[in-house]
Design goal:
Organism: Roseibium aquae
CATH class: Alpha Beta
Structural class: alpha/beta
Distance between the termini: 36 Å
Number of helices: 14
Order of helices and strands: EHEHHHEEHHHEHHHEEEEHHEEEEEHH
CATH superfamily: Alkaline Phosphatase, subunit A
Largest sheet: 9 strands, mixed
GO cellular component, one term: cytoplasm
GO molecular function: metal ion binding; sulfuric ester hydrolase activity
Pfam families: Sulfatase
Number of strands: 14
Protein name: Sulfatase
Length: 511
């Protein structure tokens, strides 16, 4: 019988923020226990940011260069297959709790269709179990039923200021059992209790935390000492961080504190180091709050006798800078925005398994296809992880990570753009190997970095002989990867016709 599928995403969760991977501060006891029964992918990367583009890759198995969702609000081409459509073909009723941030393809809708007025549409193929759009309206209605009045709901995330600080550590008016995370967990658990034991189910639980706003209820508002976090990565001065790359400077001049903290004024770059620490403590608190709700879910699966029959996937859409390089938020060139968690437990799979190979959000869709024994309607860029889940190592696998960022919509554009640069030129492609990060853009100069012992980037002088050789090698590696990722859907048709049984997973990943 087909397994149950539970895909859990926690928005904007950094890949290093798990006790299971050795974070010195963050406490995630429920995920740590879950990791002991599963496979942890230690170097897993989003393909892009922000939310809509990153989720498009997660759901379709395609890199941004192929799905072309470049920003929140950019539509997802209706011709692409996705996890929900494939789930329907596998006999499930894919059910969503939360959001997918999917703007619909306008070519398959009437121009007057209200669905075209929002990027918060539901990925085609999903049935709604419980929606949670950005305005939180269903959650606020639930709070109203618990006695909150309209005035409280209008500023529900605001907290009391603390004198002398831009970032307050005061708690929210709502409690730990009244968060958006708890609201969605409640809805899922109620739905889970109605599922027949002889009918496999597929649920996608999409939590918004630890995405901003960065305010927390008690006790999570004070769960962490702001001074307890590890040292921030990157140069010690703001100017040195801005000088690493033109796009970094533009983002620093663009990013507003109000996007991260209610009532915040000015730019993130103007925060005092102590305020970065306070934001980080709240971010860690949000992670622990989600972990507590995940404990409820895992306990319910165990109590219902479903754990042994359920594929559980925990991941994120993209990550979070959280003070590194004097930044907060996501996007740009740094891997802190793209390194995300991935833990998968598969019935019959190995336990306590660790994978150090580079893996991608584009691998989730091919993995589910492989588990279901289905062929996709397009050729994914990612590759199935199923062999890793069985304790095996693929013969060939990628030796690098790749992420993209389209910056045409930034309010502040980078300096020194290539003369005549068009909107489509305003993107970067970042290739992360074992020892370097290479950044290519049609609109900006190439950049090459090595890694310091703490993981911070160190510029490589590409004007020297050795640096020029390294740059040439990095360019070649990226070009080879870009050529390999050209769309193969129709090119593979003969393979599908003559060897359909072999198409459950995409071709082997390699350089």
């Amino acid at each position: 019988m087909r397994p149950n599928i539970l895909l859990i995403t926690a928005d904007q969760w950094r890949g290093d923020c798990l006790g299971a991977v050795g974070h010195p501060t963050v406490r995630t006891p429920n995920l740590d226990r879950f990791a002991e029964t599963a496979t942890v992918f230690e170097r897993h990367y989003a393909t892009t940011a922000p939310c809509s583009p990153a989720r498009a890759s997660l759901y379709t198995g395609l890199y941004q260069m192929n799905h072309r969702v470049i920003w929140n609000g950019a539509p997802l081409d209706d011709r692409f297959d996705n996890i929900a459509k494939a789930g329907c073909r596998a006999g499930y009723v894919p059910t969503l709790f939360g959001y997918t941030d999917t703007a619909p393809d306008p070519r398959v809708h009437d121009p007057h269709d209200p669905a075209l007025q929002t990027y918060e549409g539901v990925l085609p193929g999903f049935t709604l179990g419980q929606a949670l759009p950005e305005d939180g309206a269903p959650w606020k209605a639930w709070l109203a039923s618990r006695g909150y009045d309209l005035q409280q709901l209008e500023t529900i995330h605001n907290v009391a200021p603390q004198h002398g600080h831009k970032v307050s550590l005061e708690p929210t008016v709502y409690g730990a059992n009244e968060t958006e995370t708890a609201f969605l967990a409640n809805a899922f658990l109620e739905w889970l209790g109605r599922q027949a034991s002889d009918t496999p189910w597929f649920a996608h639980l999409s939590f918004i935390s630890p995405h901003p706003p960065l305010t927390q209820p008690a006790p999570y508002h004070a769960f962490y000492d702001p001074a307890a976090g590890p040292p921030f990565r990157g140069p010690g001065t703001l100017e040195a961080a801005a000088g690493l790359h033109p796009l970094s400077r533009a983002i620093l001049e663009h990013r507003k504190l109000s996007s991260h903290f209610p009532g915040g004024e000015g730019l993130v770059k103007d925060l005092h180091p102590l305020d970065f620490m306070r934001l980080r403590a709240l971010y860690y608190g949000a992670i622990s709050e989600v972990d507590a709700q995940l404990g409820r879910l895992f306990a319910a699966l165990d109590a219902g006798g479903m754990s042994a029959d359920t594929v559980v996937i925990f991941t994120s859409d993209h990550a979070e800078m959280m003070g590194d390089y004097h930044m907060v938020g996501k996007g740009g060139i740094f891997e802190e925005s793209y390194h995300i968690p991935l833990i998968i437990r598969m019935p019959g799979g190995v336990t306590g398994n660790r994978v150090h190979a580079f893996t991608s959000a584009a691998d989730i869709f091919p993995t589910l296809l492989d588990i279901w024994g289905l062929a996709p309607d397009h050729v994914p860029d990612g590759c199935s992880l199923k062999s890793y889940l069985s304790g095996q190592t693929p013969v060939r696998w990628r030796q690098s990570a790749l992420w993209e960022y389209d910056f045409r919509n930034l309010e502040v554009q980078p300096q020194n753009l290539t003369p005549g640069a068009e909107p489509r030129d305003k993107s970067v492609m970042c290739h992360r190997s074992e020892d370097h990060l290479y950044i290519h853009s049609p609109a900006l100069p190439d950049a090459l970095f090595g890694y310091a012992p703490d993981g911070s980037l160190t510029p490589i002088d590409t004007a020297s002989g050795a640096g020029m050789a390294q740059l040439s090698k990095a360019r070649g590696e990226l070009l080879a990867e870009r050529v390999r990722l050209a769309d193969n859907t129709l090119a593979q048709k003969l393979v599908w016709d003559h060897a359909a049984s072999r198409m459950a997973s995409s071709p082997a990943c390699r350089d």
